[in-house]
Amino acid sequence: MLDFRPVTHDDIPLLRRYYEDCTYKLCEYSVGIKLMWDHSLHCAWAEAAGCLLVRSHIAGRYVFDFPVPLGEDASVSAALDAIDAYCTELGLAPTFMAVPRACLTDLLLRYPRLSLDDRRPNQDYLYLAEDLASFAGRRYSGQRNHINKFHKLYPEAHFRPIVPEDREELEAFWEEFHQTFHKENATAQKELCYARDFSRLIGQPWVLAGALELEGRFIAIAIGEICGDTLQCHVEKALTQYEGVYPTMVQSFSAYFSEKETFRWINREDDSGDKGLRTSKLQYLPAEMGEKFWVEVHTDLHALREIPAIYTPRLTLDAITEADIPAYDRLCLDDERNRWWGYDYREDLHGPMTERYFYNVAHRDFLNHAAINFAIRREGQFIGEAVLYHFDCKGGAELGCRILPEFAGQGYGAEAFAAAADWSLYSLGLYVLRAKCFKENQASYKMLSAHMRPNGEDDTYFYFERKV
Predict the structure, then answer these.
(1) SS3 state of residue 272
(2) Alpha carbon 53 to chain centroid, angstroms
(3) Structural domain boundaries of the chain?
(4) Cα separation of 247 and 458, whole Å?
(5) Kind and range of the H or E run holding 312
(6) Which burial class, exposed, middle or buried, applies to 452 when counting CB atoms under 10 A from its CB (0-12, 13-18, 19+)?
(7) I need a surface site. Which of 148, 176, 194, 225 has the fewest CB within 10 A?
(8) What does the longest C-alpha to C-alpha distance in the chain come to?
């Protein structure tokens, strides 16, 4: 199982190894964003198949970046396999954030059921570096007019890189900027605090920072990092009482670092739905918008509104009801049955053990699209359960079956298993069904061998599968 670790400043060298050659162009694939927005994203990282995996925690659930490969031996497909296995173990369906359009096909071909959201406020503004460095041509005449006016009004102003020794001047700029900042938007307020914290990393070799200086004071600053062929501009702040300061800062920053570094694109990031920011960023004429897709993967249970009834010559499989609770509790608490089930409820107990505990778990798992628990009935009486679980979001799941001891040995388990398997493959629409049994459980081995193909073994289990 993947071992995710919270992103800290100590992880910067590792993250930069992946991001410095990343071709995705989106701001999320950068150290700056992971550090600046960590209080909101709660980022954690892991490595798999030569790829960087980043997991965020947003609105109470885990979401993943698209894997970032490093080197020719890296496998994005294998990294996605690792995410799938991690989510399956936790009973979750994967959700991805900030998926670049170029990577979307990988997910569309991988998962049979998913939904997409490409929210306009989240799209990044991508500019050609040569455009912002020169503002050449008639289309940029407005920006050139603003810059010319700025230099006419403030002829002593000049651009220079910021160095660690400028700490006092930088802090003085932030104090003055805070006094003139009037946006009440909560996101804007957070961004301002995060930007100020991030500016303390100036001096790191991967941080590019510059300022417009006038009479010994900073009146505008910009801070970014290069990821692949894109300069990610994380911070752009200016004192707006100086007319034309923003376009002058944009051009100066772009021109200065274009001469010293190699990059084709400048990402000035998203506008978060702020009307003023959107108007401003559009005036700089982006060459393209950096689309980022929110992708929610669904299990095959998402389309199921209720647990259906399945009929065999002797049995009915349907939803567990409150009337079944005494018999269902007896089944779930039977240590002998649980031994062959490979599950000890004591190790996974969430909350107090009540008479409704197991019923509530089964009900919740179905509502969360994690599992479907069928009651097995003979003449209306509860005699066992068949459980479809471990959905892998690629059309696969695992099936298990258990029967109350007084009804064992009469073929009810095999009959129920066969019916649930047929329904899973031909009605629910799974591509592959899996099952396993302990090596010493000869009865289960015989049953599974009659309905499925062997698919390997380990020290503990025989594995089986059935495909259609």
Answers:
(1) coil
(2) 9
(3) 5-121, 124-269, 300-467
(4) 65
(5) none
(6) buried
(7) 148
(8) 96
Answer whether residue 335 shows pLDDT above 90: no
| Degrees to nearest 5, angle at CA 104 with 98 and 109 | 140
Distance CA 124, CA 144 (A): 24
Which CATH code for domain 124-269?
Answer: 3.40.630.30
3-class DSSP state of 372: strand
Q: Do domains 5-121 and 300-467 have the same CATH topology?
A: yes
Instruction: Write down how long the chain is.
Output: 468
C-alpha 195/C-alpha 281 separation (Å) is: 19
Residue 414 contacts residue 443 (beta carbons within 8 Å):
no
**How far is 154 from 269, CA to CA, in rounded Å?**
29
* 263-319 confidence digits (pLDDT tens): 999 999 999 888 988 999 999 999 999 999 999 999 888 888 999 999 999 999 999
Closest CA to 308 of 363, 372, 390, 361: 372
The SS3 of residue 373 is strand
Task: Provide CB contacts within 8 A for 367, sequence distance 6+.
Answer: none
- Average of pLDDT values for 22-50? 96
Rounded CA separation 302/304 (Å): 6
CATH no. for 5-121: 3.40.630.30
Which residues make beta-bridge pairs with 117? 294
C-alpha–C-alpha distance, residues 337 and 246, integer Å:
71
Residue 444 has pLDDT above 80, yes or no: yes
Confidence of residue 193 (pLDDT cuts 50, 70, 90): confident
Where on the phi/psi map is residue 104: left (φ > 0), alpha (ψ -120 to 50), or beta?
alpha
Write down the pTM of the prediction: 0.85
Helix (H, G, I), strand (E, B) or coil at 57: strand
Q: How many CB atoms lie within 10 A of CB 146?
A: 18
Pairing of strands 453-457, 315-319: unpaired
What is the H or E stretch that residue 438 is in?
strand 432-438
Pick the CATH number of 300-467 from 3.40.50.1110, 1.20.59.20, 3.40.630.30, 3.40.50.300: 3.40.630.30
